[in-house]
Amino acid sequence: MVVGIVTVRISLPESQSLKDKRRIIKSLKDRARNAMNVSVAEVGYQDKWQISEIAFATVGSAGDIVQKRLSEIDKFLRSDPRWVLLDINTETL
Fold this sequence. Notes:
Layout lengths: L1 E10 L6 H19 L2 E6 L6 E10 L2 H16 L5 E9 L1
Antiparallel strand pairs: 1-3, 1-4, 2-3
């Protein structure tokens, strides 16, 4: 069993309130879950309205499957203009 974890810190320049931030983060989490079947959670900066830290996790029977999913997550995160990636950390266990 192989576990892949991606932790990202993103800036939300269009967000003007915590309500705006929650709307964007909910959309991000829902789209990631539906498109890639991964676990997603906001793990940091929950009280700040223009920054967020989000963790993605996936599990697979082989390393190449998990690496492919981690690459899909990276591509997904870089494809949406509503946020700016500040930091990305990928880990395989």
